[in-house]
Amino acid sequence: MRVSRVFTDSQLAPGARIDFDPRTTRYIAQVLRLRKGQGITLFNGAGSDWAAELQSCSKASCSAQVIECLTTEPPAVRSLHLGIGLSRGERMDFAIQKSVELGITAITPLVTEHGVVQLDAAREQKRLAHWHGIIVAACEQSGRSRLPSLNPVTPIAAWLKDCLGGLLLYHRANTSLAELEHAPESLNLLIGPEGGLSKQERTMAEARQFIPVRLGPRVLRTETAPIAALAVIQARWGDFRDAD
Fold it and tell me: Cα 78 to the chain's mean position, in Å?
């Protein structure tokens, strides 16, 4: 029988008692329908999975006692940082979810010239909390024990100042991603919003040593592009390869 994996913000150690927050309590008791005495796997994003047993489980509250460390996930073969232009609702959610499943290690939502999404401070915090939940759920589902970092919404110019080198997805680039022979151990991947990046933004990226690459003969949506690119990167240089 498959044991459910659940994320917690708490510190995990043998014998520790974990009291789950209301959201996680609802998930354990009403979605997973677990009961007192059943086993559960916990992780807190630091890299390990822990065996635990539910001490109480009701709609009102759930708690568990940690038993032992089960496994520790090795560090990523390649550090992958996705800078992606803000896009509408489900498109951004989908891009983040699938990028986590494919092994992204950091995500920065970017404010770009052609972006149509405008966020004030309050909406930005709500969106970041929402995206954090998507990241957690994707890690629970995919078996990841290390939580990718989610950075604040950042203007693209400011993000590029902190990044030196990477790949710029551009459907009219002269070089295809499949033609690249090597990739750095730490790789920044830049993808525009629905309307793409402006010429000025592409020029800024190239000035920071980003290499423009295309994925193929078709123009991909902003939520499809990171999935295709990350799959290629992981297959050629990342953890899709068999260990040597």
Answer: 14
